[in-house]
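WARN no homologs supplied; continuing
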Amino acid sequence: QVQLVESGGGLVQAGGSLRLSCAASGRTGTTFAMGWFRQAPGKARDFVAAVNWSGSSTYYTDSVKGRFTISRGNAKNTVLLQMDSLQPENTEVYFCVEAQWGPSEGLKYIRAYDYWGQGTQVTVSS
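OK structure emitted
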């Protein structure tokens, strides 16, 4: 039902910035949270950040605190991930995700999410 379409990935030099965007379509009501996971080739997907419906609460994995910022759009059908001070280790595929239900304590886990985007590649040159 819900489709998540990502954009904003690309190539950036170390120390640079990118802003990822995700637009949700097909939603007939509200949802609990949206967020981002990331995955390096041959590795498991890891939680990056999430934001609740109102945008009042955000959640980050420790490695991105202070560098990445997640936010919601006015229509609440979009989520942004501002990524600053990017380093080569941030070269991964980033996936937009949506959780229809809480609790918020579970948002770091893949099982919390009901919908996934196709992924957008972020490449940071060294």
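The mean pLDDT is 95.
OK
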